[in-house]
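Q: Protein A?
A:
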Amino acid sequence: MDKFEGFPAGEIAFISVPDLFFSGLLPTVDSLPELKVTLHMIWLRQRQGRQAVSRAELEADETLARGLAGLGGDPAALLEEGLARAVERGALLHAIVSSASGTHPVYLVNSEGGRQALAAIQAGQLGVRGEQVVDRPVAEARPNIFELYENNIGLLSPILADELREAEASYPAEWIEDAFRIAAANNVRKWRYVQAILERWATKGRGDEFDRRNIEKERRWFTDEEFEKFFLH
């Protein structure tokens, strides 16, 4: 057995795993391939910021293959088992995307963003370039608030869905997108921080001209004591 040396000191990357994963999903999982595949999909979802991952990408993923090989079997067979069981349990969603090169099985985390992407697949709005799923329509649409949340903060919990819908109805889409961009630039991946930015713009003004190309200048507005509580020290 290879011994893990522990997490290093200093800044390291984190991903968000919903509390419901531990209280609702994990107690029902009785297959190690399923568990490894599900966790890997959650990791990929946040690391790469894409809703759908093709089967070919998963087969070529060396990190996933190494993890499955540690179970003592054929990684390809274990991947097949893990995906099938995760889809059957409902942790992952499955669809087929067609392209000029053929049909491509794709998988998605069963989250709000994943379900919306599945609907887009079923509507024929997604395609495949090479082996990678292209998760935008040809006519590029502004991402909705759920996509922005999952791309910049993590998997969406049901308790926040109503708050996000209310914010989407209250603020311009451009403001919401820019607020998430500032939060990501400041590495403060919290909805309360995004919400505070939007509220400040609404009460104190945002200005008619917003330099989207100079995010570094804009982000300094939100590093003073008013927002200090949102930063990790």
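Q: Protein B?
A:
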Amino acid sequence: MSVPPHSVLFEELSEPLTRFDGFIFDCDGTLADTMPLHHRSWVHALGRAGAHFEFGWELFQSRAGMSLEHTVLELNRQFGTTLDPARVALDQRDYYTTRLSEVTPIGPVVALAREAAKARSVSVASGSEYRHVVHTLELIGARAWFEIIVTPADVERGKPAPDMFLLAAARMGVAPERCLVLEDSLLGIEAARAAGMHSALVRHTPPGAAPVLERTG
């Protein structure tokens, strides 16, 4: 899936927040700059598991938005490996959790969330575990804004299925077409479209480069 050709820098849009009644934020890579740490955690866990393939940045980005276990299953399918999803996911989470203090907020997205929360419904829909989402929101000073947090444990199908976003909209009491989803993964953007929602993509370049927020639909 490629980035739509009519994407524009989100900062250049003149649309007021009042166009939308609900804002649904992904957490990792959208509100919090966690992607470099997640990538290092994956490299560590896959190395311990004896994976024979290189888990480069582009491959990592292509799996962004999936649960950890689902990611391992997809990697097994892609590379013909038999990695244990539970074991690899546990190692990835352990490595990541011990280094969470390195996480910083993504300024423009957090600023948007702060403003939206003053007068609109806001929620988080993340592929991470609930406790990790809460901890990350606390670290970046955003926990108080989000009473509604949806994770894979709440639905039958994770991203790119629309279930998480539809549940978040239902809990906010907002019609899907009145929601704006902010995501850093193309799988997340696909899920937003399947849910009939507007979306904006936080586009990540390799570690060390700043994220860019783009409108996608």
